[in-house]
Design a protein that fits this description.
The chain is mainly alpha-helical and 383 residues long. Among the domains are: 141 residues, Alpha Horseshoe (Serine Threonine Protein Phosphatase 5, Tetratricopeptide repeat); 99 residues, Alpha Horseshoe (Serine Threonine Protein Phosphatase 5, Tetratricopeptide repeat), CATH 1.25.40.10. The protein is 80% helix and 0% strand. The chain is built from 18 helices and no strands. α1 runs antiparallel to α2 and α9 runs antiparallel to α10. The N and C termini lie far apart (110 Å).
Length: 383
């Protein structure tokens, strides 16, 4: 009699286990028929019962339920929950010796499409944080051992899209992480390098700015945008020797680019190498005759030299020598005039240009032009 009772109890226990697992299977069937509420009701019981709460299949179905709910509610947290459920299923399946691995892998393959679509929707709706979360979880699934059986699989397009989403969401740490990965895998070209520069600019990380631009220049030496940005970085941080080194490289590669000559002229200007600065500014203007900055800076050099020469003349006590030195100053003022006038043509509302022209017109008794510029200056200053 005792033996029969034991058998009866064992059969009851097995039936209880199957009853709970049956609810999980029933929930899956309801999901396939689009009945989310019925599926959710059965999954609540399955989560609570000790016979099914640690069963891998419970979490596979729970992930599918969260995905189905996301399609209706568009709450990104539901997709994050689905990812967690799949990870839990993988963890529990270890005790089952991989019995559910194939089922999990198939489910995740379809789920990746859902995540990718969610990422695209996030971009289209300018909800970049949602896009970032979705794409980041695609990468998380890609990195699972079950998807790495034939060597490392790297979805560089998803990495780059994750970076773009993070950048637009202003998640600078994440953007830097994924842009660095993109550059590492040679995806995104110079665009990835320049975008990472913007990220480091926003993070105010000057050390990484330099390292990123130098690496970018080494990878993409023909991308003039990177070289220009690297030169600008050195100019802005007053690392003149480094700026000059890269400027010379840039001019050697592209001697028809007026910007490079202008930038080198600025460097020479700052270090008081005025003759070299004049040559570079003139070359920039030769290549681009309406280059305002080069025109104005060249006019300023001649104007300042004229002022210095005039000071030297005023210290002269000998009348003849005074006249000679003054004539030299007037010659320098005369050289400044056409560049200032040309700069004024490009930007007729620039007050510093007009102030210089007013002084030059007064000096050369060009009264009509003096009156015109004076009136315009008074008008602008009165606004």
């Amino acid at each position: 009699m005792k033996k029969l009772l034991f058998i009866a109890i064992a059969l009851f226990t097995v039936a209880g286990v199957y009853a709970q697992k049956g609810k999980v299977n029933a929930a899956e069937a309801y999901l396939e028929n689009g009945d989310i509420e019925a599926a959710e009701e059965r999954m609540q019981d399955a989560f609570e019962h000790k016979r099914s709460k640690d069963w891998p299949k419970t979490y596979i179905v729970a992930a599918k339920l969260s995905t189905a709910k996301y399609k209706k509610e568009k709450d990104i947290q539901l997709l994050k929950d689905a990812v967690d459920y799949y990870m839990k299923a993988i963890e529990l399946d270890k005790a089952e010796k991989g019995r559910f691995e194939n089922e999990i892998k198939i489910a995740l393959t379809f789920f990746q499409n859902e995540l990718t679509n969610a990422g695209i929707e996030g971009f289209n709706e300018q909800n970049y944080e949602n896009a970032m979360v979705a794409f980041e979880n695609v990468l998380k699934i890609n990195n699972l051992d079950m998807f790495q059986t034939e060597g490392e699989i790297v979805d560089t397009a998803i990495i780059y899209n994750t970076a773009l989403a993070a950048y637009n969401a202003k998640k600078w740490d994440k953007a830097a992480e994924y842009l660095n990965k993109s550059i590492q895998y040679n995806y995104g070209g110079g665009d990835a390098v320049l975008l990472l520069h913007q990220v480091y600019t926003n993070m105010q990380d000057s050390t990484e700015m330099e390292a990123n631009l130098k690496r970018g220049f080494e990878k993409y030496p023909d991308d003039d945008r990177i070289l220009t940005q690297l030169i600008n970085y050195y100019l802005e941080t007053q690392q003149n020797d480094e700026a000059m080194e890269y400027l010379n490289q840039a001019i050697g590669k592209n001697p028809e680019n007026p910007t490079y000559f202008y930038a080198r002229g600025v460097l020479h200007d700052q270090t008081r190498q005025y003759d070299e600065a004049i040559d570079d500014y003139k070359k920039a203007i030769e290549l681009k005759d309406d280059y305002f900055d080069a025109l104005y800076n060249l006019g300023v050099i001649y104007y300042n030299r004229a002022i210095e020469q005039m000071n030297v003349a005023n210290e002269e006590t000998d009348h003849k020598k005074f006249k000679e030195k003054k004539a030299k100053a007037d010659s320098l003022f005369q050289e400044a005039l056409p560049y200032m006038e040309k700069a004024y043509e490009q930007k007729p509302d620039e007050i510093p240009v007009m102030e210089s022209l007013k002084s030059l017109y007064y000096r050369f008794e060009m009264n009509d032009k003096y009156d015109e510029v004076s009136a315009k200056l008074d008008s602008l200053k009165g606004e």
